[in-house]
Amino acid sequence: MAQRRRKGRRGSKTDQEFVSEAEEILDRMRQDLADLNEERVAGDDVDPEVVNRLFRSAHSLKGLAGLFGFDPIQDLAHRVEDILDGLRLGRVRLELSVVSLIDESVHLFASLLEQIGNPDALAAAIEPIGQLAERIQAARAAPAAESEFGDLALDPSLLRALTEYEEHRLRENIRRGRHICLIDATFEIISFEEGLSRLTAAIREVGEVLSTLPAPGEAPEAQIRFSLLVASDAPASEVVSRLGLPAGAVRLVRAGAAAGAAPAAKAPAAPGALAPPGPAAESDEEATVAHRDASEGGEPESLKSISDTVRVDIHKLDELMNLVGELVIQRGAIGELVSRLSADAATARIGSDFAKVHKALDRKLRELQSAVLDVRMVPLSQVFEKVSRVVRRLRTDLGKDVRLELRGADTELDKLIVEELVDPLMHVVRNALDHAIEPREERIAGGKDPEGRIRIEAFQRGNHVVIAVSDDGRGIDTANLRSLAESKGILQPGETLSEREALDLIFMPGISTRSEVTETSGRGVGMDVVHTNLTALGGVVDVESTPGRGTTIAMTLPITLAIIQSLIVVVARQRFAIPLNAVHETLLIAGAEIQRSEGRELLNLRGEALPLLRLAAEFNLPASPPDAKCYVVVIGLGETRMGLLVDRLDGQQDTVIKPIQGPIPAVRGIAGATELGDQDPVLVLDVSALLAETGRRRDAS
Amino acid sequence: MSSSQSESGAAAPRWQDLARRAAERRNAEVESVAVRQLLTFVLDGSPYAVPVERVREIVRVRPITPVPRLPGDVCGVISLRGEILEVIDLRLRLRLHAGPSGRASRIIVVHAADGGVAGLLVDGVTEVLPVPEDALRPAAAAETGNVETLCVRGDRFISLIDLERVLRFDAQH
Fold it and tell me: ipTM of this predicted complex?
């Protein structure tokens, strides 16, 4: 993703965001203004779409400036929007004075943007706004003369339904001597949008659609009728034949001026359909040249825009992602068909051809998928910046000497995950600052560097990103943790825990390693929330600590939440999906290989004891006959591993995990469901919950 | 996707018919009494109803995936135009006799008070019925049961389901 920004620009990131977006808008305005002026000078008919675009640009600029709190810019944009609205509705005449007024405004906007990070200079730059505003006010005084539509063969009710803009366009087209006609079109209700947009596009080839209105009277069953008011240079009969409509569908409302009298310069004002814009740089240049007459010299503006990023609403990307997800599911259905065709001798030939096409489609889909995913990725640098701001402030507040080291700021993660990551990460870092790093005197007494160190390191590991926060502080006192857990009744006195399990106690609700409450880290509602939040994202937290030496908290997160590859397994004839990024390997074992220790089932996996979980028993499904061969899916996240016993493996599939909606919230062990081409949904296992569950069971036994 | 669309497309006119018939009847009603619109359906041979405004749509029975660890009266989840919804077997939920779903069986998708949705499996949908408020009688076990009120229709009673109660599951699973 292009993240280039010109160096040396003053102001904060927020200001920069505003500037880059505002510049895009100004660029469009310059281009449109140049087109508009060219048409005005050449005496051509003005393309209404150009004026509409300018109007929309000013409107967006107004909204944007409002959003970021740049009142003077918002105010100026509002006035420019006003005058463009007047132009659009025919209340303001298109004259040189108006064009140069807008042009001056655009220049003023640009100079305001230059000064955005510099309040003093901004105040000076704002000064000309007052004068300009007055002139804008004056420009929009005289309204155009009204003309009546008495000579039109139109139903008055239809005329009343026209908006002011549509009336203006009708008047304008009559003035230009174009033919006005009414086209009736009937569509199937289910597909009318498509049909209507096809018809509209066809009309735009020959003229302008002034208005689209629902036709009066009853439409036939399951159909819908529209009347389109159309202006065109060619007579109605030609319009009919070009559109391939029945002759009765078109009615002439007003005949245009004699052929030849109509302006022949450009083809009819076909918004957007004609006159493709030239290469951007070139037309930009024209824009500037065309407007120099109206603006005083000043320093030459850069023709290149400062940023070449496009801003997109994340929800639009979600929509796109969903569509891709559905395509992927459809592909699965095609794959099914392919194998059915290939299996039958009668269709095997076509089946193999089909398979080739399917493969090509498959490849392209994968490319599309990864391209869309790529757009969602943002570097962690944004989060890191926020964290270091907080660290700087806390360092002063707490009076601690701490050095913050950041590594891997360019590691990329899904935008949504990055958003969700901020709070947990901030919490872990605060904890380190507040609890882990000792006061200076204590560090010196312990023979440590008086300056503490907190390091945040991010790196990619397979389909995951690991973000590790490590400090060289006092480490976690597990004995202290134990006694606290016992006093809260979380742990039975005398219960044996491994060092690792003892450390994991910090993720239990209500545990805080410090007895007093501090403003920085709150009161023991910390690490358990971090744990919950990360689990919700499909991630895990691992903690490692050496007393006196320091602590490392590693958060492992999936790179994206969107489409994932899953392994499909079958248990008691029901299919389940396991996210492939949590699957390490699959094994086929004989029942006799399963060993038991303290009532738990284990497998000797290359010398390591792998705890096993029977999915059928876990989910109360009928168990498969004992001693049969069975499959073990080795799953794991972070450092923990576990083997799932299943009846059968059923291949890999692309899956889009969807939440289950209903009165019963989150079923433990189920992350959601997915569709695999056929209708019944397949449940997706929540690997981190299953891992946690076996951990708990181990504690309980 | 296409198959589910065509299916809901087939179901939609029927739903609209019901609504239109109800609207016509409503116009004929005397305006003075407040009227509630109820969607009536059959469970184990008896008439039941839910308020129309709580109904999002009515769909045919489709493959239901059982979900482990759910209470027994939840049959599982269905996929509806990309959404995954839990479906409650209303017969079991109301402690009626269990029965297989037949040709007339439908899933009524209702809005929960918390903004969520859920499917209710019923034996068959009957009609949309306008009922004046004064035809409603408190149910015998309104305090404890899943039926809020009874509605008199001729000499028959229609049980109006208390959706809040039906959709509330204790967090014991």
Answer: 0.77
